[in-house]
Write the structure tokens for this entry.
Amino acid sequence: MKQINALLQHTSLEKWANILIRRFDVQIGLVTANGQIFMLGQPISRQFEMPTREMWITWFEQSNVQKSPFVNSDTSALQTIAVPIHGNLMEPCAIFASGFDMQHTQTRDRHVIGQEDFRLVIEMLMEMASKLEVQCRKTDANAETKNTQFEHECEQFVAKSQEMINILRYVDDICELHSPVFIHGEIGTGKKKIAQWIHQRSAQKHGPFMVLNCAVLPEQQLESELFGHKRGAILGALTDKAGLLYVAQNGTLVLEDIDALSLALQLKLLHFLEEGTFTALGDDLMRSANVRIIMTSLTSLKDKVDAGLFRPELYYCLNRFVITVPPLKDRREDILALCHRLLAQKCAMHQIPLKSLSVEAANILYQYDWPGNIRELENEMHRLVVLAPGEVTIHQDCISARILQAYERAQQAQTV
């Protein structure tokens, strides 16, 4: 549908369509292989029935979208001339002119045409189809350039699995919006890194990127960190303090473990998300801030809403743009690629020759479920590099005992 709409916006189509309509008083449009019609112009002085959807589908099936123009063979009806458009379209389509009388009756009606006019109409339709094919090629080239740029920018991520590829493409769709984003996933799945990538691709990329963990501070101190405070508002507050909403102006603020916020702070955050304004602790002055908010959690929060621990209005506000990061056990295609990248990083960090995994070691690491996800995997790769400094190839006996034991248990379970 997007491709068809893009073709309809081609600047020269309207001019050519108007010439045909003024000269022959016909309908001009695009039709897809499933019979869906997109009109470019209507006849000026009359109305008539178009070919039915079934007729279009039958024609596409019979012709298999050949390069030659099509003229419907029913001489008892007003006729249609159609020329297929050959481009890399999701669905084949053709440009058509419908409403001609080709019975060569003695009349001066504009829609009655002879052989010369017939050839003229076909030439004009073929010229229109040719221009649209060029437009298809330009669109494909632009898409390919965008995909190449996108793939290059994604190199900071390991995304061999379809799940991660889908996440990165979704991020690409929403990164330029100013709306809040909610990212949830198990511990160590890379939620902060995804938040950083959203920031790097957003309109706020030149502003600050700040992170606040909502689970590590008591409520009053958390409110002070987030919204700021006036002198004397809390114990030990000898001066005014600007909160992160103010400090992160024109940037991005990540609120980790958002479910740790109290119901009162949730309400205050909701007000900021909806109105863009807030008050510092101990202050009556309403302030505004231009900050992109990204929130993370280990869960989807639905259970906490049901338990009355999370405000449903904030939950629905967060649910506009949600990213669910799957654990490593659900995207095993990424495991070995992550191993190789992390080994290279740790070897470079310690300035030692690049190491690789033996086939047996790689198989064990691939089979392991990694409950700590990427964080656990990174620690294991660091350990292997440090504990096998003279080894070029890392063998299975270097792997942590817990991973080897889990592998042995899995093997035994398969043989039972």
About this structure: The two ends are 53 Å apart (CA to CA). The CA atoms of residues 157 and 193 lie 9 Å apart.
